[in-house]
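Reproducibility note. Readers wishing to regenerate the assembly model reported in the main text can use the exact inputs given here. Chain order matters: entities are listed in the order in which they were concatenated for prediction.
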Amino acid sequence: MPEPLLEVRDLRVTFRSRRGDVPAVDGLNFRLEAGEVLGIVGESGSGKSVSMMSMLKLIRNPNCVVQGEARFLGRDLVAMKDKELRSLRGKEIAMIFQDPMTSLTPVYTVGWHIAEQIRAHESISARAARARAVQLLDEVGIPDPDRRVEDYPHQFSGGMRQRAVIAMALANNPKLLIADEPTTALDVTTQAQILDLLERLRREHGSSIIMITHDMGVVSQIANRVLVMYAGRAVEQGTRTEVFRRPSHPYTWGLLGSVPRVGKTRLRRLPTIPGHPVSADAVPAGCPFHPRCRLRHDQCDVRPELAAAPTAPDHLDACWLPRDDRQALRLSTVRAAVAEGDPGDTIEAEGP
Amino acid sequence: MLAFIVRRFAAAAFVLFAISVLVFLIFFATPGVDPAARIAGRNADPATLAQVKHEFGLDRPLPIRYLLMMRHLFISRDLTSYVNRGTKVIPQILQAVPITLSLVIGAAVLWMVFGVAMGVAAAARQGTAVDPIMVLLGVVGVSMPVYWLGEVVNLLTQSRLHSTVFHWVPPLGYVGLTQNPWQWALHLLFPWLTLAALYAGIYARVLRSEMIGALNEDYVRTARAKGVSERRILLKHALRCSLIPIVSLFGLDFGALVGGSALLTEVVFGLPGVGKLTFDALQNVDLPVIMGCVLYAAFFVVLANAVVDLLYAGLDPRVRRA
Amino acid sequence: MAALVLLILITAACLAAPLYAHSIAHTDPFTSNISGTTVANGKSEPLLVPSSTGLGLGVTPIGPTWDPSRYFLGVDNQGRDVMSRLLYGGRSSLLISVSAALICCFFATLLGMIAGYFGGFVDAVLGRVFDVVWAFPVYLLAICLSVVLLTSGLVIGPIHIGAGSIWLPVLIISVIYVPYVARPLRGQVLALREKEFLQASIGIGTSDLRIMRREVLPNIAPTVIVFLPLMTALNMLTESALSFLSIGVQPPNASWGTIINDGLGLLYTRPVVTLAPGVAIVLTAVALNVLGDGVRDALDPKAKLRGAA
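Running the prediction on these inputs yields the following structure tokens for the assembly.
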């Protein structure tokens, strides 16, 4: 097998606090091949952003301890010195963040930001950097880029700002782009445009993308592979087709169930996952999802490991339920959720 | 930008006008106060009173009196002191202005340089010993009366340690910059340091908290993700944004200094600036001088504020269009 | 916490001033005692010795004896006990700064609420006035007011404040700082007015007065409480500066500022007269500022006073 672009092995991120160590990421494993788009899904606090940011040493809290391995083209990012890592950040690995409103320094022009990105890793003249900035803005679909390059971030709309941020991230043709909820702060139409843009740029630049999101809809549009996280651990992992067609973890069922659908019999009430997301300092023993799971049984007191069914070696999940009748069980939980929410309503079985 | 400048100076002119009216009203329209008697000084004879009444046109309605007053101050510039008969007020003030400006500008440069350096150091070394020391300095800065610190400095440099460490410190007073630049700086050194010591502490503290706030902003995280060096993040991103509130604070303090603390500092260090002039006038209730000084000081304050606002607009692109 | 203890100690000591002056020091700190004597090393010594330096015009008072019953900190150039005056001065300084802070915050809250709540014309006028006073250096404003009022006193309706009264500086100081407090409060009220719960109250027809009392006031109260100790510290410095310029507290009353002024002529011979009240001011103001910061951290981390972080 060729060397993967990124291979994360047993990544652990722990925050030391007065009340003891709080594990935010608890043993994360995944591989990302060149050109792939990996969607990492989970509720807020599930450790998806923290794992990516800690990998790049973007968490400056001195009480944050990162363990494990994250091999990027064979080099372990976790063991790297900050200075070494800095030469990778923004050049080989770029990251964009959720809120385009606050992610640009308000006192500099958009062009300045892009030029700073280019000149951080390449010694070219300011004039050349500016020309590249105009070109990049054009590429991400900013109209009249020659003029807009001199605009300040506050003169851009949210969607345009996110485009500018993407232009900045792609300035050095990174091999990997990590996008942390890039569309969450935007309205739906803009969201779709940004996703299209990312998809097009991926094709043109050949970058791999890790897309962090809580929105199954976003994942279904862009990802080849999906990783579902809960309470700092991966609970399900597989290709998009597998995860969406045959989701095998009750938590994934919950996530899929709570996406409103168009064109199906409308449920009067959208099913939700009962209970609240666990906070990292109070992860229950055993399967972390068991307090919210309708199908918990005695075995759930023991923490399940991520494992694959023999029939689909690339589709892993961390659940004790018997593998053969998962789909039937899923239907029953959806029914139960709906019955609880709105008694007397009927649903039809749903598939992708 | 031009429209902004015009608007800003129009606002400054309005504030200046309002201040002059306010001062005028305080001196001439406070109930139970006879301005003629006040201007003429205590125990003035009827002849003086009459002369004062005529000079200031006190028998005329208030708006006319206001205009007359302004003419005396700014156009004919012949307002005279009533304590030292015949001494014109305006030349006295003009003579004193460079001294006050020397004091204030020198101190401001020192306090901004030290304040910014200390604030950045504290923010960059959060969690080390530098940090709490800076916080303490800031608290002492807002808690210590400047004139008292000046007295203590005098006590040390002029008396107690004068024969040993501070034998090079000249006696209190002022030497003009054009006369002898070296002596000018030497005479002003301790007044500068006294003023700057307090303000540098305050500014370091404000800047520190601004910087810490800025370093937690998303744009700093973005800059890190871009692979920008920590030094550049600290100076180009965090400091640059933190300077915006500092500059507006500076405008206010510079004004307050011209009108307040500089007065006290000048008195303590025997510098014959506008503040000392005001102080001497206060001692013998020389109203024309007080009024002249107050209005001239207010003029500089408002001017400084306007300039600072323009600077602010230069620093913060978000303000320019608003 | 240490700040609070220190404040209580200082206040208690100042309140006990008459007790100290009458029962321990046996002096009257408000009358000059030029030819007084005291007993030192078993011998009777004059309190004031004609100065031996310079032109011999001045006098040199006795220095600190460090004996609480016999001029603990020495005497000033009129033979008055410095320690007793320090305690009495503290009473004035504390009284002025605390009451000025209360009055100032009261009016500032009122004006800030009116301007922020009603908006429109009222707000425009008040806002302009605040702007003007804000741009006017406070010391200059205080000086103008003091000069005018000090010789004539002030009569507003039934309230009559005598020329030498201690309430004159209280009034002046509280007036000049009103915009400092009112401006941030106005901003807060403006923001509150957009909040749903307030809109809801207006929607169901609650009277303005009731909304202000029941909805607005409780929401801005934390900020006002944070401002109180900080304003008290600021007032203390302002009062001392005015008194130092001899336009604050008038003789025979004393405050820490006037004592510093008294000590000026003795700075090089008996510096303790100037140093002691200064140290008292610094200690009290530091304690108040630390207390204010603590209260702010507990109640309202965003409250900011002009000039103070």
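We highlight two features of this model. The first helix of chain C runs from residue 2 to 15. Chain C touches chain B through 54 residues (CB under 8 Å).
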